[in-house]
Amino acid sequence: MGRAGTSIVRRSRPRTASRVNKSISLPLAQGGFREGGVTQEQPETSSQTIVADYARLLNTPVAAPDIDAPPFSTDLPKRDAGKKCALLLSAHPDDECLTGVLPLRLLREQNWQIINIALTLGSNSSRRMERKKEVEKACAVLGFAGALPEENGFSDINPAARNADADAWNKKVKRLSEIIAHFRPQVIVMPHANDGHATHVGTYLLGMDALALMPQDFTCTVALTEYWQQIADPNTMIAVKEDDLATLMSALACHAGENARNAYDRRFPALLIDTVRRGEILAGQGKAAPAITFGQMVKLGTWLKGRFVPSALNRVVGTSTTDSISALFA
Ligand SMILES: [Zn+2]
């Protein structure tokens, strides 16, 4: 956890000279580019003040909403036949927030049904009931429904367990494929193959194994997310609206036990700011970063004829009215 600086020395008074930024190219969802001139004038501020502001914000607790939440169980929520559906495979309670950008936009902009499958309740068995309550609250804040794959969530979702006990692993794969068959989602969201944490990698393997059990003609969009390690070859950046990020932070704040150990909630906006830097990967090195403030990177593709086929398009979905999230699925 960081600590606010205590001895900020101002070597010069902040200047008030204005700066006019040059126009910036914004890749559109369709793969084109738009000249989006940013010409607002901003007074210059000393770097010491800006650093102190970052440190202050990191140390400012986020208000956790007081909300009644329906309990999760192994009974799956009813599929709403009138809506499209996204299934979010969460390795841990809190991943529904940390990787929830695309599902939240689909909910708010397209009125999709969003289901969070809390695959595990964490490795610490003494905290599982507490973490279950936390994820229930977080999903109530987000507007996601949720369910558990089995009582108290799965254990041993990692590559080593997959190799060590094929029978136990295959039972979990079968259960998850039943869940996918129940919802028949248009989109499944899960961590990417090298997400830097054994349970996240295990969630990817479980998700892909479960998809492989589906009938050969089953197809859906798959969005691979990143948290513990960046995707080496992402193809899509999804801008995060300020309102949506505020909701995601409020939901994250429900995970009080985890935030006490590591300030996941307060670090989240900084992570999404830094992700926009990597827009260069999509636009081409040397090009401008997308003209957005917060973004989450994913690798988007299609589950088709029994395998994951990554999209060949590099795209940025911005936050303007012309940047519809549904363009990803056109
Ligand atoms: Zn996690």
List descriptors.
disordered N terminus; binds zinc ion; about 325 residues; two-stranded antiparallel ribbon; single chain; Rossmann fold
CATH class descriptor name:
Alpha Beta
Corresponding CATH superfamily: LmbE-like
Small molecules held by this entry: zinc ion
Shape: globular
How many β-strands, per DSSP? 13
Summarize the structure.
With 330 residues, the chain is of the alpha/beta class.
Overall description:
- With 330 residues, the chain is of the alpha/beta class.
- Helices cover 36% and strands 18% of the residues.
- It has eleven helices and 13 strands.
- It has helices at residues 47-58, 95-98, 101-110, 128-142, 159-164, 166-183, 198-213, 242-253, 256-261, 264-277, 279-283, and strands at 18-19, 24-27, 33-36, 42-43, 85-90, 113-118, 145-147, 187-191, 220-225, 236-239, 295-304, 307-310, 315-317.
- It is globular, with a radius of gyration of 21 Å.
- The termini are far apart.
- Zinc ion (ZN) is lined by residues 91-92, 95, 197, 200.
- Zinc ion binds at residues 91-92, 95, 197, 200.
Please give the structural blueprint.
Elements: E1 18-19, E2 24-27, E3 33-36, E4 42-43, H1 47-58, E5 85-90, H2 95-98, H3 101-110, E6 113-118, H4 128-142, E7 145-147, H5 159-164, H6 166-183, E8 187-191, H7 198-213, E9 220-225, E10 236-239, H8 242-253, H9 256-261, H10 264-277, H11 279-283, E11 295-304, E12 307-310, E13 315-317
Parallel strand pairs: 5-6, 5-8, 6-7, 8-9, 10-13
Antiparallel strand pairs: 1-4, 2-3, 9-11, 10-11, 11-12
Helix pairs in contact: 4-8, 6-7, 8-10
This protein binds zinc ion (ZN).
The site of zinc ion has 5 residues, from loops.
